[in-house]
Specification:
- 38% of the residues lie in helices and 0% in strands.
- By secondary structure, it is mainly alpha-helical.
- The chain has a domain of 45 residues.
- The longest helix has 18 residues.
- The N terminus is likely disordered.
- InterPro entries: DUF1289.
Amino acid sequence: MQKCPTIPHYAEMSKETPCVAVCMIDPKTKLCFGCGRTLPEIARWHAMESAERLSVMALLPARMAEAGLAPIAGSRKHA
């Protein structure tokens, strides 16, 4: 049996995502209801360097508050 190839740094990348599996875009704000990212950010997420992902994640709480979007209950917490 052949081993599945590993994705470099996959475990590290999975810790650096605000995704809460509620992938719906608010038509008014163009932000994801679950995480607050834009479609271009979501599309590029795994191509981004770690520092860029963390930078976007730092903006999300204020972005969601400004847009009037409440964080989804049970969403991930990031330091």
